Amino acid sequence: MLANMQIRTTMRTMADLTGGRAFFTSSDIAGSIAEALKDGSNYDSLAYVPLNRKWDGKFRKLAVHVDGKDLRLYYRQGYYAEDPDKPRRGFPSPDPSIGVAMDRGMPEASQIKFQLQLKPDGAVRTIPVSAPALQSRDGGVHSPQLTGTVRHYSLTYSIAPADLSFLPYGEGQLRADLTFSAIAYDAQGKMLNSNVGAFNSPISQKTYEAMTHDALRIHTAMNLPLERVYLRVGVHDRRTDKIGTMEIPLNVETGDQHQP
Question: pLDDT tens digits, residue range 74-115?
Fold first, then answer.
């Protein structure tokens, strides 16, 4: 009984912090899903620029008030005061053209359909402060930010080719202009690590035809700290401006088991 109460309290806290809702004690799973989808399809986006320009990295609470009775608001409860004009914590930045779509707790986009296979790859290890933890796809090393005990994960994107734009490139080849991003957050929306990349290499007509019967698969990897994380992943076709995003809650543990 105590364990169930702790789980409910955790779920309710997570939902309140991120502007969501937690459903309990209901056998009507279909009804709960339908209600959640309805809520996620009807929302207003609000934005503001803080007057306090002291970017000290501290957590600042937010409060939204509306006129009207019998109304309950669901919204993100705060943000970290980080300078928006500087790279966040030195991590590789996601494709800037998809903006807030990669923020923690935002509604998922489905213009591009894809799946993500997430698998622990190797044993737990410790990254010392002096070791670089991040490396770009072009070989450039970023300033070390993620340190301490981590677990290495492999990520495989499986993307529906029909949702992407492939145009002729050279003789008998096709080319897409695609970016992909993965950002790990904590429950309060603080960035823990990120992985970004692009797919724009020419492929043969034969390879494209084979993909139409299966999927475009992109393999990458990233380190995640040993804690509860929320992995936000996204795909962006820069030619058509279509995007797809999803968010995966994940318990990063020392063993081989993880909870998607």
Answer: 777 777 777 665 544 445 556 666 777 888 888 888 999 999
Q: What is the DSSP string of 132-186?
A: ---B-TTSPBPPP---EEEEEEEEEEEE-GGGS--EE-SSSEEE--EEEEEEEE-
Cβ-in-10-Å burial (0-12, 13-18, 19+) of 230 comes to buried
When the candidates are 2.60.40.3880, 3.30.479.20, 3.40.50.1220, 1.10.540.10, the CATH number that belongs to 88-260 is 2.60.40.3880
Q: pTM of the full predicted structure? A: 0.61
Give per-residue pLDDT as tens, 203-238. Answer: 999 999 999 999 999 999 999 999 999 999 999 999
Instruction: Please answer whether residues 101 and 226 qualify as being in contact, where contact means their C-beta atoms are separated by less than 8 angstroms.
Output: no
CA distance 57 to 217: 37
CA distance 11 to 24: 10
In the block, residue with structure tokens 């970290």: 80
Greatest distance between any 2 Cα atoms in the chain: 67
Total Cβ atoms within 10 A of residue 56: 10
Q: Which of 171, 181, 51 is nearest to 116 (CA)?
A: 181
**Cα separation, 190 vs 36, whole angstroms:** 25
